[in-house]
Input
Amino acid sequence: MTLPAYWDEACAQLMRADRVMRKLIPQHRATQLQSRGDAFQTLARSVVGQQISVKAAQSVWERLLTQVGEVTPHSILAREIAALRLAGLSQRKCEYLRDLAAKFDAGEVHPGQWAEMADEAIITELVAIRGIGRWTAEMFLMFHLMRPDVLPLDDLGLQRGISLGYFSGEAVSRSELREVAAAWAPWRSVGTWYIWRSIDPAVVDY
Output
């Protein structure tokens, strides 16, 4: 597991810039964003976990390991969909996993270049993979690449947390989300992290 080098600097700036962050960050200082695993496995886990509980996703992942051994592009492509379905995956998720594996295998995604690529360029590359939408790509930027300034506007936790923390629970528009988060730049990933903690102190891997 790796901790972002920028975290302490980001927290200090957020507490100076934002009254809500000034209260939230000291309450949850023991938690930090952490990266784990490799890129392919992280994205494969995202596909496996779609629309099911964390516990169910872990169970399916463990059964997938039993079927294929280490989850790699080669091991996924070497199995027919029928074999992958024995892990408890739906037909569609099997197709998504095989598309993910095929694009990694063919060099259509470029992990070796991501360090030099802008966030939006990486998102564009990832959403070309079946089963990976913008939200999943943004979670990947935050949790795997640990990009510091990602603002996942479609995230329900972010919407709810900003509603409760800044608007007394009233519904908020995308423009209002952006306006609140403007004070967090260039550390909007960190601001989002603490907004999540304000509504759920437990840390969930993506």
